Amino acid sequence: MSSARILSTSKGPSTGDWEEADTRTINLEDADPTVVNVVVAWLYTGRIHYVPEVQGAPVMEVQPGTQTTVTVPSSPEDTESWSWELLVAIYIFADRYFMQRLKKKVLALLPSKPAPHDSSLLNHI
Predict the structure, then answer these.
(1) What are the b/e assignments for 20-33, b being 16+ CB within 10 Å?
(2) pTM greater than 0.90 (yes/no)
(3) Which of the residues 22, 47, 69, 113 has an alpha carbon 20 to 30 A from that of 104?
(4) Residue 65's CB: how many other CB atoms inside 10 A?
């Protein structure tokens, strides 16, 4: 099972009358850490990219024993080299949390990629 925790160092989603405001963390059960990394980077920059290390911004903590279910991109900025599995996982996460703009950006990346070997991935889009 995958799980990620976002630690917030600034005000924003972790403010208000919620537990997250007190703990300054947002726990995401069943969320792949690689996908969460890309989504957080997109939330801050509006660009789809992977951030291997973050300094002075929210930090993601991975629960012990958690394994990523998608391949970490070898080229953080070059989305052309990213796998279908990673892009589809980002799309599913965006759909789950009603992130329409992110879904559109991911869909715009898919036509430039060759069709996946596993055609069942297409059922998720």
Answers:
(1) eeeeeebebeebbb
(2) no
(3) 69
(4) 8
